[in-house]
């Protein structure tokens, strides 16, 4: 399976839009175009012709560029079946277990409700790339706007089993703030301490900290670590139920 060339476009205050380009066929997908202008400009500079938009969820900072990009390129818009009424210009509806072919690459689709009820993620196994929108962030996870802690745990569990080398292309640069919170609940996690040092250096230079990898997240992301004895002890829930610990961690982050 052909690998994808993936280009990151920073837009708005902290969003990342991605261009994923199939080297064999030239097909190019935009993942979660918050806006149109900078994405069209980036594609033009790269010499890539946009053929698809892949949306993870309906929020405007992920779909705001849909209609303008479709108007300018005639691209096909792919999005969550469960949220078809909230995805501007949707052409193809996908959900759990579906595959979507982009040129010579193929994405497997996961339903990952929690942040929104119709949120999906795209896993390109051959390109070791996961586009997870606002479900999993570097050292964080999305706020639970339309879902329960139990739903979000089930959604995040789908990512935990992916190969550790899988690159996590999340949709926001929230890493530094997430890491500060992570340290507050797992202060003795040596992997977390050293990751935060690298993140602080990168951010001081204005460099992106995304993508990370599933392996890094498993070691340092508190929202994948509700079974960590250290985390449980810090929040006063030693031996606590996994979902209850997750719910408490998420609640604390909301007001951190
Ligand atoms: Zn969102
Ligand atoms: Fe967002």
Q: What general form does the structure show?
A: globular
Structural class: alpha/beta
Number of strands: 14
Cα end-to-end separation? 43 Å
CATH architecture: 4-Layer Sandwich
Rg, Å, rounded: 18 Å
Q: Pick out the low-confidence regions.
A: none
CATH topology title: Metallo-beta-lactamase, Chain A
The CATH C-level class name: Alpha Beta
Order of helices and strands: EEEHEHHEEEEEEEEHEHHEHHH
Spatial order of strands in the largest sheet: 1-2-3-4-5-6
Number of DSSP helical runs: 9
The whole-number mean of residue pLDDT values reads 97
Q: How much strand? A: 15-25%
Q: What's the arrangement of secondary structure elements?
A:
Elements: E1 4-11, E2 15-22, E3 28-31, H1 37-46, E4 52-54, H2 60-63, H3 66-73, E5 76-80, E6 92-94, E7 99-102, E8 105-111, E9 120-124, E10 129-133, E11 136-137, E12 140-141, H4 149-160, E13 167-170, H5 175-185, H6 190-204, E14 212-213, H7 214-220, H8 229-234, H9 242-254
Parallel strand pairs: 3-4, 4-5, 5-6, 10-13
Antiparallel strand pairs: 1-2, 2-3, 7-8, 8-9, 9-10, 11-12, 13-14
Residues 59, 61-62, 134, 171-172 line the site of fe (iii) ion.
């Amino acid at each position: 399976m052909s690998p994808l060339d993936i280009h990151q476009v920073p837009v708005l205050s902290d969003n990342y839009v991605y261009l994923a380009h199939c080297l064999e066929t030239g097909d190019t997908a935009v993942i979660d175009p918050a806006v149109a202008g900078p994405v069209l400009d980036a594609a033009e500079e790269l010499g890539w012709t946009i053929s698809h938009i892949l949306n993870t969820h309906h929020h405007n900072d992920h779909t705001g560029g849909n209609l303008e990009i479709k108007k300018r390129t005639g691209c096909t818009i792919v999005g969550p079946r469960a949220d078809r009424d909230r995805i501007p210009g949707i052409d193809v509806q996908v959900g759990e277990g579906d595959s979507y072919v982009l040129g010579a690459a193929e994405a497997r689709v996961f339903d990952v409700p929690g942040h929104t009820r119709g949120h999906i993620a795209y896993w390109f196994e051959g390109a070791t790339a996961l586009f997870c929108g606002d479900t999993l962030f570097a050292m964080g996870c999305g706020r639970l706007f339309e879902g329960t802690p139990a739903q979000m745990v089930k959604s995040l569990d789908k990512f935990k089993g992916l190969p550790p080398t899988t690159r996590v292309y999340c949709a926001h640069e929230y890493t530094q703030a997430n890491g500060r919170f992570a340290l507050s609940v797992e202060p003795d996690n040596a992997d977390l301490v050293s990751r935060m040092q690298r993140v602080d250096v990168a951010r001081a230079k204005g460099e992106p900290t995304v993508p990370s990898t599933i392996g890094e997240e498993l070691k340092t992301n508190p929202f994948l670590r509700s079974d960590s004895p250290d985390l449980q002890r810090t929040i006063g829930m030693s031996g606590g139920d996994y979902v209850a610990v997750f719910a408490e961690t998420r609640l604390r982050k909301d007001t951190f």
